[in-house]
Predict the structure.
Amino acid sequence: MDITELTVHELQEKLKSKELTITDITKAYCDRINEKEKDVQAFVTLLTDSALEQAKEIQEKQEKGEIQGEFTGIPIGIKDNMCTKGVKTTCSSKMLENFVAPYSATVVEKLEKENIINLGKLNMDEFAMGSSTEYSYFKKTKNPWNLNKVPGGSSGGSAAAVAANMVPWALGSDTGGSIRQPSSFCGVVGLKPTYGLVSRYGLVAFASSLDQIGPITKDVQDCAMLLNLIAGHDEKDSTSANRPKVDYTKALKNDVRGLKIGVPKEFFGEGINPEVKEALEKSIEVYKNLGAEIEEFSLDVANYALATYYIIACAEASSNLGRFDGIRYTYRTPEFKNLKELYKKTRSEAFGAEVKRRIILGTYVLSSGYYDAYYKKAQKVRTLVMNEFNKGFEKYDIILTPTSPTVAFDIGTKSNNPLEMYLADICTVSVNIAGLPGISIPCGVDKEKMPIGMQLIGNRFCEETILNAAYTFEQAVKFRETYKPEFKK
Ligand code: GLN
C-alpha cells in the first residue's frame, strides 16, 4: 500500500483499524516530499523534521489516552500567506522573507486544536497576485502532471503538493480564482467558500472584500471534512458570518435527481479551448444521465467581471500593502538618507514587478481625479454582477462553467504578458465579486493528458448543494481512479 495515495478519510479508517499509526503516515509523507520536492518545488518552508517529532509525541499521547479526535495526527500543508506562530510566513515575497508571525491565523489554530500536523508552508505568487505561481520571489512550482507546465496560481504550491501526494490535503486562499484555477490545472478538488464563512484573521490581506481561505483536496469528501474544520464565526474577523454549524459531509448524498443546473452560454464562447469545451459538454451529459435538469441561459457578467475585479482588487491591495513600509515588517533597505528614501527604497527593492504594477494601478483608480470614473464605477458594476447571479439562482440550484478557459500552460509563456495572465481568471473572478461559493473538480484530460476542471457555483452559503453535486459527479466519473500525474519532464 502506498500511504500517500490515500485520501484523508481513508487514512482515518486505517488509523481506526490500527493498520497504520500516526508516525507511519507522517513518515510516508516526509519520504514522499524528499523524493518529489526537487522536481515539484511546492514548499517555501519545509517542516518535515518537526512534523516527525510532533507525530511521535501525538502518537504517545494518544496511546496513553490523553488525546483523541478523528483528525489527530493527520498531516496538512498550508499556503504561505496564513500566519503560523513560530514559523515563517513569507507570502513568497522578499518583503517578508524572514517574517515570523507572533500569532497563528484562526484557521491554523483550528487545525492545531485537532492535533493536525503541519508539513510546511506552500509556495504561491507573491502576495497571492498571479495565476501561475511564477511570481514567487523564491521558486517556480512545477505542475506534477508535466513539469514543464505551471501549476496555476496563486495557490500553486498547495495544489501541486496535493496532486503530487506530498501532503494529503492543503489550505489555499482565493481572491479571484486562486484555489479553483490551480486545482483545475493540477487535477484536484478546490473550494472557495462563501465570503464570510471562513475567518480571514491571520490571512495576509490582498483584497479584503474578495479573499477567502478554502480546502484543496484529493476528493470531495475530504473537501467537505476540511471545510467542517475551518468554517465558523470568528469575532476577530468583522466580516465573518454568524451562522449555525453545518456538517458538510452529511450533504454528500450521491444523488442529483431533480437538481436544476444552469449553464451560462457566455462561459462557453470565444477564448475557451475546444478540448476544455468538449470535456465540459461531456460532463453536462453525465449530469443529465444522473437525473439533473440542465438548461442553457445567459449570465451577462463575463465581459465586465474581469475589469471590475482588477480595479477593486488592485485598489484594495494598494491600501492593504501600505503597511509594508520598512518600519513594521522585516525587510528594510540597508542604506537611506531620510524617511522618504527609506520607504521608497524598501518598497522598490522588496516588491516584485506584479505587486508594484497592482499598487500603482490601485493607487491610480483611488486617486481623487479618477475615483469616480474607475473605482466607484467598478463598485456599481459589482452590484450588477451580484444581481445577475441572483437572477440565475431564482431559476437554478447551481451554475456550471469551466474553471479556466485552458489547461495548464507552459512555464514562461505568460509571465511577461500581464493581460494574458489576467485572462486565466475569466471564469472565476465573478464568483468572488458576488461573494458566492465555487468548487472546481477534475472532469477530464486533454490530448496531452493535462487535467481539465469544471466549476460549480452555488448561491450564498449553499456549499452543501455544490458539494453534493461535485460528489455525485466524482462517484460517476472516477477521475482519480483513472488518471494520475506522471511527472513528465
Ligand atoms: N489570479 C488572480 C489575481 O492575480 C487571482 C488571485 C487570487 O485569487 N489570489 O489577482
Summary: The CA atoms of residues 102 and 413 lie 39 Å apart. The chain is about 40% helix and 15% strand. Residues 128-131, 154, 174-178, 206, 313, 425 surround glutamine (CB under 6 Å). The chain has a mean pLDDT of 97.
